[in-house]
Amino acid sequence: MTDAILDQLGSELVMQEVIAKQQTPLPPPIAADASYVDHDINLAASSDMSSNSSDSEIDNYIIMSQSAVGKHRLFGRQKPLHVVLGAGKRADLILWRNKQLSGSIFGGVTFVWLCFEWTGYHLVTFLCHSLILVLATLFLSANLAAFINVSPIEFPRVDVSERFLTSTLLMLGAQLNCVVRTFRDVASGRDLKKFVKVIVSLWLLSVIGSWFSFLTLFYLVFASVLTVPLLYEKNEDAVDSYAEKAWVEIKKQYAVLDEKYLHKFPILSSLKAHKQH
């Protein structure tokens, strides 16, 4: 009898606990922090913008090019100049997207070049004298440190990684192989146009090199890289129009030259006939 009463009381207590748990309100769901949500949304939007910026730029350029009927871009390109140059920091620097950075670099290099030109100092001489001064100063300070009870200068250890050396050598090797292949193709006499282009280019370089020193020539190349693409981008339509007219005129003059002189050479005429067949 007592056991039956105890069992009944235990079952009633269990039922009361179950009912109490069911009636207890659940805690409200934890709300996500708005700052984290906004941060994730901003990250997704920025990644989408960065990935689609070049694509949208290309699309806009294609639409503008199609609207201009009869226009041919320089070198037959189908993409905007910013994308052709890499669409990165290098393109931004060349096209003066960041005017402060591009102007600072251009002004600094111009100032250094003017200092060399005004003083008549040569670059190789300046580098050698600077190294002599630095090495002499460090050598004397290292030997005098023991006499004046001063700790000697600790030189930082600089190690060039093998990966960097390997990638650099591979890049230089690829460029050298390209030059060798071009020289072989030109010297083989198979392509007359390429032969004429290489000869004229080398002759122009020899003439320009006789006018300027190596430092001045380097500065002119640097200044051209930072000015010519910018001017071309601002006057793209006019430059492309003049370039197309000039290319048509060059083809006409080449046809006249071929008809009057080049076809008289048996080697050149045989090569031309072989290409046509």
TrEMBL record:
Pfam assignment, any one: Reticulon
TM region positions: 105-124, 131-152, 164-183, 195-222
Record has Disulfide bond as a keyword: no
Subcellular compartments: Endoplasmic reticulum membrane
Protein topology in the membrane: Multi-pass membrane protein
Top-rank lineage group of the source organism: Eukaryota
Keyword Transcription regulation: no
Biological-process GO terms, alphabetical: response to bacterium
UniProtKB keywords: Endoplasmic reticulum, Membrane, Transmembrane, Transmembrane helix
Domain Reticulon: 90-276
Any Gene Ontology CC annotation: endoplasmic reticulum membrane
Stated name of the protein: Reticulon-like protein
Organism (species): Linum tenue
Lineage: Eukaryota, Viridiplantae, Streptophyta, Embryophyta, Tracheophyta
